[in-house]
Amino acid sequence: MNLRVLVVTLGFCLIATILFGLRPALGLSRRDLVSELKESGSIMLQPFKRKRGRLSLLCQIALAVVLVMGAALFTRGAVKALRPNSDFSFNGKLLVKLDTFAAGYDIARSQQVYETLVGRLRSLPGIKTVSLSASFPFAEGGSGGYGGTIREYVPGIENDNSRESGAPPRPVKGAPEVHTVGADYFEAMGMPLLQGRPLHRLDSAPDAEKVVIIDEQIARRIRPNGNALGCLITYGWKRPPYRVVGIVPTLRIATDNEVPSPQIYLPMAADSRPAFIQIRVAETLHENEVALQEKIRTVIREIDPQLPILLLKSLADCYYDNPFVWMATIGAKLAAIFGAMALFLASLGIYAVKGYMVASRTRDIGIRKALGATHRDIMGMVFREGTALTLAGLVVGLLLGLGIARLIGSLLYGVGPVDIISIAAAIVFLGAASLLAGYFPARRAARIDPMEALRYE
Fold first, then answer.
1. Fewer CB atoms < 10 Å away: N or C end of the chain?
2. Are 140 and 312 a contacting pair, CB within 8 Å?
3. 70/77 Cα distance (integer angstroms)
4. Could you give the C-alpha distances from 422 to 199, 403, 415, in angstroms and in order?
5. Distance between CA 131 and CA 277 in Å, rounded?
6. Strand partners, 211
7. What pLDDT is attached to residue 197?
8. Could you tell me which of 200, 177, 208, 205 has the C-alpha nearest to residue 246?
9. Is the separation of the CB atoms in 152 and 167 below 8 Å?
10. How crowded is residue 40: how many other Cβ atoms within 10 Å of its Cβ?
11. Rounded mean pLDDT of 421-445?
12. Each residue of 345-378: pLDDT tens digit?
């Protein structure tokens, strides 16, 4: 609770109350008593006042459409951000990160500690697979860096922009994220291999052929049919060619980029410092991950009590704690609250304006019923007036909403400014709220007794 924010909010509320109550108060104070007494007593609204009431109602509906549409856009973006990839699940997987650098370990000692830890963890009951990596896609401090432009390497053709020895292969747009991973990484992550084979320990040998695993996005850009298995690629500057031995699904996680970054996976070399441990848990232990995390902490302390544990949580929690996902979720919740408030205020305004209009036409409604108007005729008359205003407000609100959606398009994730579902949600919610708010005044108007309405004057 911030005192300044509270004072400013109360101040704005007080100013709004005074401003909107000042004009009616001045109007009442300037009325002529004699002319008021000479009037017939009819409280039917004058045409100008009726138009002003309708304009106010139209503005409320239009503003509510804008806020409800914005709430739907942010909510849909948050839902897509929370569902990163349909090819594999984050459930049943743990992520561990240690800080061997702070502990004073060199690369050789770090590798030894990690290998010992992996062997101990594999012996724990309920753990299926354990793997290592030097980086991780969405963990804090897990960025593997970007590798520059990816090209297919064809012997005999220069791998640059010169055309002296023929046209170079088409480059892949977007710098790839380069991750150095160990054996069993994809099994521990639960990522299926679409083509080829996983990485083996022998791929890390100094004299082994340089191999790489790419995602489906890169494969389809190199070869339109996606069959890039076995071809040679290069990335960045002055790097040797790598042979593609496997293709995995694209990791579609929530980022500020509209298109997910392409990713390539290299085997861990002899001079790589491990940082992350990926653990895949058996299905029988999905509900006991907290107890398993305590066992993992105990194993780490037994190896070295002074080794800092920077991260130990489930893969799903690690993803949901991603700053971009967190911001998308908070934005969706705030937008939903503002949209619900706008929907409530619009419904309240519709009910108040229609109720006042019905009260001002009491004599008119009584005369209509005395001349034979039925219950259905009176309700239809009130509903028709409200429907026309609602339709006009919806049209104006949609136009404003589409314009504002284009302005906030950069804040949306996975949803375009022109989203049919969000538009439909705004129309349905506001239409239903308008009909519900107009039903009670219409029913009250239909129950007016003609004799009481005529004596009312």
1. N
2. no
3. 11
4. 44, 14, 10
5. 6
6. 243
7. 92
8. 200
9. no
10. 8
11. 80
12. 777 877 777 777 777 777 777 788 778 888 788 8
Residue type, 198: P
Residue carrying the six token digits 């800080």: 99
- CA distance linking residue 433 with residue 346, whole number of Å: 8
C-alpha–C-alpha distance, residues 63 and 44, integer Å: 28
Residues 149, 172: Cα–Cα separation, whole Å: 6
Between CA 123 and CA 135 the distance in angstroms is: 24
Identity of the residue numbered 277: I
- C-alpha span between 445 and 209 (Å, rounded): 86
Using the structure block, give the residue that is written with the tokens 């949901």.
320
What's the CA gap between 199 and 247, in Å, rounded?
11
Q: Encoding tokens for residue 348?
A: 């309240």
Q: Say whether pLDDT at 119 is over 60.
A: yes
Over 80: is that where the pLDDT of 45 sits?
Answer: no
**Residue labelled with tokens 């951000």:** 81
For the chain, count helices (H), then strands (E). Answer: 13, 11
Amino acid at 408: I
Q: What's the full length of the chain, in residues?
A: 457
Q: Are 72 and 339 in contact (CB under 8 A)?
A: yes
Does residue 131 contact residue 277 with C-beta atoms inside 8 Å?
yes
Q: What is the DSSP letter of 159?
A: S
- Please give the structure tokens belonging to residue 443: 């029913």
| pTM exceeds cut of 0.85 | no
Residue tagged 């503005």 (tokens): 59
Do 269 and 183 touch, CB atoms closer than 8 A?
no
Tokens of 95: 């992520």
Cβ-contact 121, 280 below 8 angstroms: no
Instruction: Give the pLDDT score at 161.
Output: 44
DSSP label at residue 193? P
Question: CA 339, CA 330: separation in Å to the nearest integer?
Answer: 14
CA distance 195 to 209: 19
Element (H, E) at 277: strand 276-281
Q: Are the C-beta atoms of 190 and 93 separated by less than 8 Å?
A: yes
pLDDT on residue 10: 95
Give the separation between CA 358 and CA 444, rounded to whole angstroms.
Answer: 8
Contact criterion met (CB below 8 Å) for 281 and 289: yes
Angle, alpha carbons 356-358-360 (nearest 5°)? 70
3-state secondary structure of 325: helix
